[in-house]
Design goal:
By secondary structure, this protein is of the alpha+beta class. The protein contains 19 helices and 10 strands. The longest helix has 28 residues.
């Protein structure tokens, strides 16, 4: 019963987090979002729309996502022959597939639209993260038991992994990337390789190749996991040269697995042909690696997006793992550290080394099982270091609070400075948006409206403020004092002209609280001439309620 306690408690906490963080049938907060739209799109394109051009996403965006296109993601990249391909690789769609087909059934039975994006599909993708992650932990438990690691150590490490690293953020808040699924595949790969090394059964090597093929067509950089093969060999008490003997390596018996692996590996090429009539493309276009200028130390330690700074538990993990392997042998230390260094070098050489917004360095999540093995071996042998158990709770609290901060824009993932990090340390309330007026701006028009206004289903629009006709304007500052008791209210500031040819809006859902809050937003124009600007607040014709006490429009050139 005690052994099951971790699973029941952790799964319950994760599910509660997901339910509180996502709107599965609202325009904001959907699970299929960001890069996840690209990874997922292969499934509806093939099995619902039979559309290699992905033209259906334009209709989907209008139907299910914010009309202001604040969450729009166009993943179609143009090729030399004028046709378009999905920029992402299809491996994640294979892992999504069971949940996609189950969602189709649920949607059909429940009367939802069977279009790939209605609520059952959003739920399906969210739940896939939970199921794959905890199955991955079960494989990791089996790995630890094969290495004779005590279960108490295993569950301590699982607690740290789940709640004390950026895994929590990508498990609960952000379902737009592939790393939780890659974590699962990595644990399966390690399990297969260890079984092959320790039992000499060739089928485990065959399945390792199949899993590695799936990892590579999910994210090609996952292929670097094979660099840990010497490490896995040494901790099993073997030598790498032994693996190439007839006892370990029987090519004839590997042929069926080789065929399956090649079939999986060929999927990107087949899909490129289907989309663009080209067998080989570079789907990321001008995005790539710059190996001459890696952001190695920024990747590890920067306030902007440092892997170890944002997850200090992982810094401690590397220290204790390195200590353990250094006591065993120089070869074990090198076999563990050298792949990690190389992986960081490669990943930090990507053109966008921060990998966008989010929490910490997300591409390192798939390599955490290898790091977890080192920590487990250390704790299993050096029992006098049991004080480590008491460090887990504060690290978990820190990680969960920072995940909340990034999700709620208290800190900005990918652009945080040292000053912002410490001035908002453990802060749970978001700063109100404000605008600093530059001395170079020249005020040309200003209007205010001070009166209590109510917005609801029957009154979706606020009072509007109109500027005079402006000969030229480059910047407009919109200010409002507003409150709403609803969670993520569907409210936006709208700035337009008389004939509607100009339309700009700012979504307020992330900034509003139940108490009146003064906030300001800046809208820039490249070259706007002879226009009268109109500013108002709108609830998107929803049932959202709000109270407004002040509004202001200032125009500059």
């Amino acid at each position: 019963m005690k052994k099951n306690l971790f699973w029941w408690i952790s799964i319950t906490i994760v599910l509660c987090g997901i339910f509180s963080a996502h709107e599965f049938d609202g325009r904001y907060g959907r699970s299929i979002n960001g890069d996840g739209k690209a990874y997922y799109a292969y499934l509806p394109a093939i099995f619902i729309y039979q559309d290699p051009t992905f033209s259906f996403i334009d209709e989907v965006e209008l139907k299910y996502y914010p009309t202001d296109k604040s969450q729009f993601k166009d993943f179609r990249n143009k090729q030399k022959n004028g046709k378009y391909v999905n920029k992402t690789f299809p491996g994640l769609s294979i892992l999504y597939a069971p949940f996609f087909f189950l969602s189709m059934l649920v949607a059909w039975v429940g009367g939802f639209a069977v279009d790939g994006y209605s609520a059952p599909f959003q739920w399906g993708i969210a739940f896939s993260h939970v199921i794959y992650f905890f199955i991955g932990l079960r494989f990791l438990l089996s790995i630890f038991r094969r290495l004779k690691i005590r279960d108490s150590v295993s569950y301590l490490i699982f607690t740290g992994l789940t709640f004390g690293t950026n895994v929590w953020y990508y498990l609960v808040y952000d379902h737009t990337v592939s790393h939780i699924h890659n974590f699962f595949l990595a644990t399966v790969l390690i399990w297969m390789l260890l079984n092959w090394i320790q039992t000499k059964r060739i089928q485990y090597l065959g399945w390792s190749g199949v899993i590695l093929s799936l990892l590579i067509i999910t994210r090609p950089t996952n292929g670097m996991m094979i660099l840990f093969l010497p490490f896995l060999t040494l901790i099993s008490g073997k030598y790498l040269k032994d693996l190439f003997s007839k006892e370990y390596f029987q090519i004839k018996r590997l042929m069926p697995f080789l065929i399956v692996g090649l079939c999986i590996f060929s999927l990107p090429f087949l899909l490129w042909k289907w989309q663009s009539n080209l067998w080989l493309v570079y789907s990321y276009n001008d995005e790539g690696f710059n190996f001459k200028q890696p952001h190695f130390f920024d990747f590890l330690y920067s306030y902007q997006k440092g892997w170890l700074l944002w997850s200090p538990l992982l810094f401690l993990s590397i220290i204790v793992s390195g200590f353990y392997f250094s006591k065993k042998s120089l070869f074990q230390l090198i076999s563990f550290m050298l792949p990690l260094v190389f992986i960081v070098y490669v990943l930090s050489s990507w053109w966008c080394w921060t990998y966008g917004a989010g929490f910490g360095q997300r591409p390192m999540i798939e390599f955490l099982p290898f790091l977890a093995i080192g920590v487990a071996l250390f704790l299993n042998e050096y029992k006098r270091f049991n004080f480590v158990y008491f460090l887990i709770l504060p690290f978990c609290c820190l990680s969960m609070i920072q995940s909340y901060q990034i999700t709620n824009s208290i800190l900005s993932g990918g652009t945080t400075t040292k000053e912002q990090y410490w001035s908002h340390f453990l802060q749970l309330k978001r700063d109100a948006p404000s605008v600093v007026v530059s001395a170079n701006w020249k005020l040309i028009d200003q209007h205010e409206f001070n009166s209590i206004q109510k917005i609801d289903k029957n009154h979706p629009f606020s009072h509007s403020i109109k500027s005079v006709e402006l000969a030229s304007v480059k910047i407009a500052v919109l200010s409002v004092e507003i409150a709403s008791d609803e969670n993520k209210p569907d409210l936006r500031l709208v700035l337009c002209n008389k004939d509607g040819t100009l339309y700009k809006d700012v979504y307020l859902g992330e900034h509003i609280s139940s108490s009146l809050t003064q906030m300001e937003f800046k809208i820039e124009f490249p070259d706007l001439k002879n226009q009268t600007l109109i500013f108002y607040v709108w609830n998107g014709d929803s049932e959202t309620k709000a109270e407004i006490t002040k509004m202001g429009l200032s125009c500059y050139k």
